[in-house]
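Supplementary Note 2. Why include the ligand at all?

Several targets in our set were suspected to adopt different conformations when bound, so apo predictions alone were not considered sufficient. For every target with a known small-molecule partner we therefore ran a joint prediction. The input for protoporphyrin IX containing FE is given below.
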Amino acid sequence: MMREAQPVLLAEDFDPPRYVIVSARVSPMVELARWLFERHRIPYEEEGHAPLLHVPFTWWRRGGVEVPVVVSAAQTWKGARETLHGLDSRLPGGERLFGDEPAERERSIALVEQLLQRLLLQVRRLAYFHLLPLRRVVFPVVADGIPWWERAVIAIAFPIWRRLMGRALDFSDAAIADAPLKIEEAFAIVEAELMACGTRFLGGDAPNAVDIIFSALVAPLTLPDGYGSKLPAREALPPALRQFVDSLRARRGGQLVLDTYAAARPAPQPRLQRPRRDRTLAQRLLGPAVLRAGARAAVAWGAPIVVRQFALVARWTDVRYVLEQDLAFRIEPINGPNFHTISGAFVLGLDRGPQFARERRQMYDAVSRIDVADLRARVRDEADRILTDALAAGDRIDVGHGYAHPVAARTAAYLFGIHGPTEADLMRVCRALFHFSFLANANETRVTERARRAAEELRGWMVDEIERRRRDRIAIDDVLGRLLALQDETGAPIDGETARRILVGLLVGAIDTTAPTVPRIVYVLASDPALLARVRRDVDDPRKMTGWCWEALRMWSAAPVVFRRTPAPTTLAGRAIPADCKVAAFTQAAMFDRGIFPRPRQLSSGRPLQHYMNFGAGLHPCAGRDVNGVQLPELVSRLLKHDIAAIGKPRFVGPFLDELVVTIKRPRP
Ligand code: HEM
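The joint prediction is reproduced in token form.
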């Protein structure tokens, strides 16, 4: 559930934006988009322009004249209505703009439509009609935050720009006479609603999305504090406009605007830029085919390769040996220090010992009771909802951040009981922690510092939730609830800190493994039309779909290598391995070992599932195996039930595969 008054974040805390808002900065519809993105903590890049000069830019992005035009990997939302409905479709239950229940949604959508019809054009028409003659007042307002050359164009050609604006907005006598009436009608509608519900806001004690939509749309005529772009000072308004503004501010609806801004307008997001590159040079060079060739070469070489304090192990039996001989090949020196930096010890960073034995049992106790039938139904519903919404808006879907990422986050929040203030917060924090824990070099201080701050945030959410459940005696049958119900050897409930450490490890391990894995599988299966046709015949067979997914992952592994370190000299397949040697267990290569995977270059859905090492092996196999066995094949099957017409290039954000745009053939009506 969303919380207001969230802490202010640094620019480097945000994930790079996946949305570009092409805007006329001062526009109330753009203010609305900024406010909603910021409220839900969704990072965006704003490409701000002056009114009218925005048109070539919105056209170039295949939008129309109306701002904002919001561009994301697979969709372009043109104007206020598409932005509202598009954003609503991207949000999880509990955060959706129009509510969750069908009746509530219908009511909110109808109310918002009434407001849009009366306000979208009229507020701008009336405001510009009064302000355009006052160059001194209007210029700083429209020039705020726009490129220097646009400012120069308007400064030089102000009379022409003013005339064109007047023509675009229609300043005819009839239109100007009608504008205040329509605006007052909108106020009256909102005031009648407020009367009917008898609360301070339309949303009750706190503003909801309808309060925000109304407030943003009329802000240029009510002048609240906190508008995300420059507005004229009240004293600078011409008398007729000032009188109208004062009359609106004095109404119950005007008070609602001021209160909504005060209660719910977040601090503006720092300026962010969507990364211009899809992939780094290394990601370009080391594509799936090259990685696969490397895996095949390593297993063909056979014996372990040892160079000073580094060893590479590729044959299936050797990789298994490394993962099973966990006292000779230890995990604690690999993962332990990172876990200590962010939240304290976790099973994946512990070697065999009393703490490992105790906490592993506690973790599995909580995880093994996940109801997989319930999970399957939820994943299906969530996947289908996202696909249906995407297909209602067009024929493209981003399988990464637009599909697998939200489903993985929703699954994790539901299973583990930690939701974060918003879904985007949960995703951001978990990604920062995963990046630091498994994918960063020790010298990447920005990654480390970001992870430290993310860990603090996550700790706060968890401590609050644990306290709330214990204080109010709330029993929920999720992983957190089961951990809190566990007892230690003395019969006392396990302490909140242990529950929290286990939960951090699970959360971090769950989302940013699943999210980049689904696009990998889809890319492998859908890039070859003949293979795709074979796979699509099996979409209703969960066992075969699991086989196809595990095969696809063998071809483009999500975790191709896992590492261990030797505490003392040892031997492996007849080779001496020195003490303090970092051993790379090349699990992807092992899955090209002909002894275990005959005809390894071919994809087949019928291989024994226990031979795969996509999810590790030995003492630390993935604790999410059962979840993966449901979630990954379900996400892939629900997508492949649709006919794929084209598949784009994978796009990386840092080390994460984040975007893969798939075009779906829509059935003819
Ligand atoms: C595509 C999805 C996933 C992939 C590719 C994946 C991969 C892996 C791998 C390779 C390991 C072993 C690491 C090593 O030996 O060094 C592992 C361990 C682990 N995974 Fe996953 N994982 C996935 C999803 C999940 C999920 C959904 C959860 C939580 C429900 C999870 C929780 C864990 C935990 C707790 C461990 C450590 C287990 C232990 O140390 O005993 N993983 N995972």
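Residues 496-526 form the longest helix (31 residues). Residues 347-348, 360, 505-506, 509-510, 513-514, 517, 558-559, 562, 614-616, 620, 622-624, 627-628, 632 surround protoporphyrin IX containing FE (CB under 6 Å). Comparable summaries for the other entries are listed in the accompanying table.
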